[in-house]
Amino acid sequence: MLKGIDPLLNADVLFALRAMGHGDDLIIADTNFPADSVARQTRLGRLLRIDAPAPRVAAAVLSVYPLDTFVDDAAARMEVVGEPDTVPAVQVEVQKAVDAAQGRPWPMIGIERYAFYERAKQAYCVIQTGERRFYGCFAFRKGVIPPDED
User: Fold this and answer.
1) Which domains does the chain show, CATH number per domain?
2) Which InterPro entries does the record cross-reference, listed alphabetically (predicted)?
3) 114 catalytic, yes or no?
4) Catalytic pick among 22, 36, 51, 114
5) What is the tens place of the pLDDT at every residue in 90-141?
């Protein structure tokens, strides 16, 4: 355990989050996502796990992970197949975690299922969660932490 760091953030996840740079993508995926095969194609090349619900994992990650303010797609969700405007409960809950971490409403775009898979393959890493609800899959693009003001 470390002070000020959510206990869900294990050493492997903290290593990956620290190693990522501005513009790198992080995928938080549900239990049904083909996480292992996709993770093998990422920059990290192996799957990370946090066995907790997706909203809880997103809150933990976003407690230390800045979102990119230079792009419109820094927060994204996998769209429901055939219903791109439907936002399931798990996505509503993750949206609340994103907004809380940012301290303001923050847009989360929808990405078609297969386009999401392609974005995930280009990501830095994939964290598979214990989320069993469908469409609990998210992409977060890393931003920057500004220097301290003098």
Assistant:
1) 11-141 (3.40.1650.10)
2) RbsD-like_sf, RbsD/FucU_mutarotase, RbsD_FucU
3) no
4) 22
5) 999 999 999 999 999 999 999 999 999 999 999 999 999 999 999 999 999 9
The pTM of the whole model exceeds 0.90: yes
> Residue 51 catalytic?
no
Are residues 125 and 39 in contact, defined by beta-carbon separation less than 8 angstroms? yes
Angle between helices 89-102 and 54-62 (to 10 degrees): 10
Which amino acid does the sequence have at 73?
D
- Classify burial at 85, counting beta carbons within 10 Å of its beta carbon; exposed 0-12, middle 13-18, buried 19 or more: exposed
The yes-or-no answer on residue 22 being catalytic is: yes
User: Measured between alpha carbons, how far is residue 107 from residues 55, 68, 130 in Å?
Assistant: 16, 12, 25
For strands 75-78 and 109-111, give the pairing. Answer: parallel
| 3-state SS, residue 94 | helix
Catalytic residue among 30, 65, 117, 135: 117
Query: Which residue in the list 65, 68, 124, 135 is annotated as catalytic?
Result: 68
Residues 6+ apart with CB under 8 A from 2: none
59's tokens:
């809150």
Q: Which residues contact 147 (CB under 8 A, 6 or more apart)?
A: none
